[in-house]
Specification:
By secondary structure, this protein is α/β, with parallel strands linked by helices. The chain contains 7 helices and 12 strands. The protein has one domain: P-loop containing nucleotide triphosphate hydrolases (Rossmann fold, 3-Layer(aba) Sandwich). The strands form 3 sheets. It has a 6-stranded mixed beta sheet with strand order 6-7-8-3-9-10, with helices on both faces. A 4-stranded antiparallel beta sheet has the order 2-1-4-5. The structure holds adenosine-5'-triphosphate and magnesium ion (MG).
Length: 303
C-alpha cells in the first residue's frame, strides 16, 4: 500500500498549521480512584492513580485489556467523575465535558449522513460559529489531513484510514487544548497505521496540543510518545512511566524505536501473563516456559 492508496499525496509535505489559538493544557490526576456501579456492586476500575501530563506533551497509555486506559481518557474528558481524588486541567478541577477536550475513537464515528466537510463543521455549528468561519476552518483542517479533495465525500466512500484522518480533523475543529485518542488506529492495517502515526506526529508538532494516546501496540507508543505510561490490572493502576527521548520526527523503521519497544514490551508481558494465568481455566503455558498445571484442577490426581 502506498500513501496515495489511502488518499495521501505521495509527496505530502507539511502545510502551515491551521490557526491554533488554544495552546495545549496540562492535565493531572491526583490520587484518582474510579469505580463503576454494577448490579453486583462497585467495580474498581482505577486505583489511586497519580499522573501529571505537561501542556504540549504526547503521552501514550499502554497496558493490558482492562487496565483502565479508556477509563482514564473518560476521566480526563470529563465524561466520568472520579470516585476519589481530583482531575485537573491547568490546575483547575474538570467539572464535565467541554470543547477544550476532544476524543477520537477506534471507530471514526463520523456521521454517515453528512459529507466529510459537514462532519468537520458539525462541532462548530453546535458552538454557534458563523458559517463563513466554519467553512474556512474546515478547509484548513481538511487540507492539514490531506483530505480536501474528499470534502464532499460521504464516510462510506472513504477508506478506514481516510475516515480516521477525517475524525482527527473533526476533533481539532473546536481547537481543543487536549486531544484524547482511544486506540484510533487499532482497526487499520499495519501500513496505513504507520502512515497515520506519521500524520499524528506531524499534527502534534504543528499544533502543540497535549495528546493522550491509548494503544495496545508498544511500537506505536514508542514511535509517538514523549513518555509512555505503563498500566497494570486487577485493579487498573499506573505502574510507571518511560521517557522516550528520541528525536522527532521519528521514522517507523528507526532501529532505536524497535530497541525501546522490545524493552517496554518485556515489562508489559509480565502483566499480560498475570492476567492470562488468572483467566485461564486450564493449564497456562508461559511463552518458553513449562506447562504449569493448575492444582485446583488436579486435586486427587495422584491418589
Ligand atoms: N461500563 C462499565 N461498567 C462496569 N465495569 C466497567 C465498565 N467499563 C469498564 N469497566 C471495567 O473497568 C475496568 C477498566 O476498563 P477500561 O475499559 O478502562 O480498560 P481498558 O484498559 O481501556 O481495556 P481495553 O484495552 O480492553 O480497551 C475493567 O475491569 C472493565 O471491566
Ligand atoms: Mg479501552
Amino acid at each position: 500500500m502506498t500513501a496515495a492508496a489511502i488518499g495521501l499525496p505521495a509527496d505530502a509535505v507539511a502545510r502551515p498549521s491551521p490557526r491554533a489559538t488554544r495552546p495545549g493544557a496540562s492535565t493531572s490526576l491526583e490520587r484518582v480512584s474510579f469505580s463503576f456501579q454494577t448490579e453486583k456492586g462497585a467495580r474498581l476500575a482505577i486505583e489511586s492513580a497519580n499522573l501529571h501530563i505537561e501542556a504540549g506533551e504526547l503521552v501514550c497509555l499502554v497496558g493490558p485489556s482492562g487496565s483502565g486506559k479508556s477509563t482514564i481518557l473518560n476521566l480526563i474528558a470529563g465524561l466520568l467523575a472520579p470516585t476519589e481524588g481530583r482531575v485537573l486541567e491547568n490546575g483547575a478541577p474538570i467539572d464535565g465535558p467541554g470543547p477544550a477536550r476532544a476524543m477520537v475513537f477506534q471507530d471514526a464515528a463520523l456521521f454517515p449522513w453528512l459529507t466529510l466537510r459537514d462532519n468537520v463543521e458539525y462541532p462548530l455549528q453546535l458552538a454557534g460559529t458563523p458559517k463563513g468561519e466554519r467553512r474556512a476552518r474546515s478547509e484548513e483542517l481538511l487540507r492539514m489531513v490531506h483530505l480536501w479533495r474528499f470534502a464532499q465525500s460521504f464516510p462510506h466512500e472513504l477508506s478506514g484510514g481516510m475516515r480516521q484522518r477525517g475524525a482527527i480533523a473533526r476533533a481539532l475543529a473546536t481547537d481543543p487544548a487536549v486531544l484524547l485518542m482511544d486506540e484510533p488506529f487499532a482497526a487499520l492495517d499495519a501500513q496505513t497505521r504507520e502512515i497515520l502515526q506519521g500524520e499524528v506526529e506531524r499534527i502534534f508538532l504543528e499544533t502543540r496540543k497535549t495528546v493522550v494516546f491509548v494503544t495496545h501496540n508498544v511500537r506505536e507508543a514508542v514511535r509517538l510518545a514523549d513518555r509512555i505510561v505503563l498500566m497494570g490490572t486487577r485493579p487498573g493502576r499506573i505502574l510507571r512511566d518511560v521517557i522516550i527521548d528520541l528525536p522527532r520526527p521519528r521514522a517507523a523503521n528507526d532501529e532505536r524505536v524497535a530497541w525501546f519497544a522490545a524493552d517496554v514490551a518485556g515489562e508489559i508481558r509480565s502483566e499480560v501473563e498475570k492476567i492470562a494465568r488468572e483467566e485461564a481455566d486450564d493449564a497456562w503455558v508461559a511463552p518458553g516456559g513449562r506447562v504449569r498445571v493448575d492444582p485446583r484442577r488436579n486435586m486427587g490426581g495422584g491418589i
